Amino acid sequence: MGLEVAHSSKGVSLCQRKYCLDLLDYSSLLGAKPVTTPSDPTIKLYHDSSPPFNDIPSYRRLVGRLLYLNTTRPDITYITQQLSQFLSNPSQIHYNVGMRVLRYLKGCPGSGIFFPRDSNPHIQGFSDADWVGCKDTRRSISGQCFFIEKSLISWRTKK
Fold it and tell me: CA–CA distance from 99 to each of 77, 95, 121, 132 (Å)?
C-alpha cells in the first residue's frame, strides 16, 4: 500500500511520504511554492459555466491519487470529496483546486497519523455540517472524526 510505519518510544506514525513525493513529481510540482491550507475557504465548488478542463482522464487520475492518499491524510478528505463530485465534467477551476491540494501536500509530504503509546482508551467524536452547502443539489455536507485518546481512528465526509 505504500504506507511508511515508524516506531519510536513515543508511539507509531503512519504516513505515505514517498507516495506523496511521487505524486508531486508526476505532477511536476516538486519545485512549486507550497500553500498552508488544502483549499481556499472562499471558493465553493459546483457545476458552473467556467471553461471545461479538457483532459478528463488526467483529472480523474489526480482525484484517484488524492483519494488513495486519504488513507493517512485526513486533512485533505473534505476537499478530495468535493473534487470527486466532478469526475464526469470537471472545469478548469476544479483542476486548479486539485493543483492547490498538491501544493499544500508539497509543504508537508511526511505528515500522517500518529498513535501515541501512552494513550488511554478514551473515545472522542466530533461532527459538523454546513446545512444546504451544495449549490447544485441544495444538500448538506457533513463530516465526522473519531479519536481514541489523541489518535485519529476514523473520519468521513458525506453529502
Answer: 15, 6, 39, 26
Does 128 map to a domain? no
Q: Which residues form the domain of 91?
A: 4-117
Q: Is residue 18 part of a domain?
A: yes
Question: Could you tell me if residue 58 is inside a domain?
Answer: yes
Number of domains observed in the structure of the chain:
1
- pTM score of the predicted model: 0.80
d(CA 88, CA 110): 31
Q: Give pLDDT tens digits along the chain (159 positions).
A: 689 999 999 989 999 999 999 999 999 999 999 999 999 888 888 887 788 999 999 999 999 999 999 889 989 988 998 899 899 999 999 999 999 999 999 999 999 988 888 866 788 899 988 877 777 777 887 888 888 777 788 888 777
